[in-house]
Amino acid sequence: MKNKSPLAPSPLLGTGSFLFLDRDGVINQELPGDYVKTVGEFIFTPQATEAIAILTSLFDRIFVVTNQRGIGRGVMSQADVDNVHQYMLAEIEKAGGQIDRIYICPAISPTCVNRKPNTGMAFRAQADFPEIDFRRSVMVGNSLSDIQFGNKLGMYTVLVGDKYEKEHKIYEQIDAFCENLYKFADNLQHNVKPI
């Protein structure tokens, strides 16, 4: 890991701190070889809504940045994704959490500026919320593209999930690892003091 401590305090909390979350594999369970196309296929990861409620109290703003190339491939529509997100946001709000904005990239091409690991979605967020400082931001994801996205922007990067073997190079590129989003939120809540 870039930083050997479980969660480094300096960039994580306090006034002017921002959280970026991947969706599939972080907020909801991934469907291997498929896309989440309906509300029925959207299953939260363990205690994800509780995690976001905790994180809402710790960060100024929370954003979701998600590649959704199933739209570009014609497997699902923008309306399908919107329906899923309406459900997701409603459940998060019921638990006391808040997502400030969701940014998606439907493009198939890896050269699209908005497709992670490219950084377009982050700059779209910054255009909407000019107070965002990427150096005081955290990116939580479960894929190499998420970590590369965060690293390009100078964010503190947190890997969650079990997608990669412990020998994988991704562990040299992250600042911290947590089992899931709830473990990240719980660790942050109890082990890291606000700055």
Question: Could you characterize what this model shows?
Answer:
- The chain has one domain (18-191): HAD superfamily/HAD-like (Rossmann fold).
- Helix content is 31%, strand content 15%.
- The protein has helices at residues 48-58, 69-72, 78-94, 120-128, 144-152, 181-191; strands at residues 18-21, 61-67, 101-105, 137-141, 156-160, 176-178.
- A 6-stranded parallel beta sheet has the order 3-2-1-4-5-6.
- Helix 1 crosses helix 3 and helix 1 (48-58) packs parallel to helix 6 (181-191).
- The two termini are 23 Å apart.
- 38% of the residues are buried.
- The mean pLDDT is 92.
Number of domains: 1
Query: In the CATH hierarchy, what is the architecture at level 2?
Result: 3-Layer(aba) Sandwich
Oligomer: single chain
Stretches where pLDDT is under 50 for at least 5 consecutive residues are: none
In total, how many beta strands?
6
The CATH superfamily title: HAD superfamily/HAD-like
User: Helical residue percent?
Assistant: 25-40%
Largest sheet: number of strands, sense, barrel closure? 6 strands, parallel
Count of separate DSSP helical elements: 6
Give the overall silhouette. globular
Strand order of the largest sheet: 3-2-1-4-5-6
Mean pLDDT: 92
The share of residues in extended strands comes to 5-15%
End-to-end distance? 23 Å
**Sequence of secondary-structure elements:** EHEHHEHEHEEH
CATH class: Alpha Beta
Query: Which structural class should the secondary elements be placed in?
Result: alpha/beta
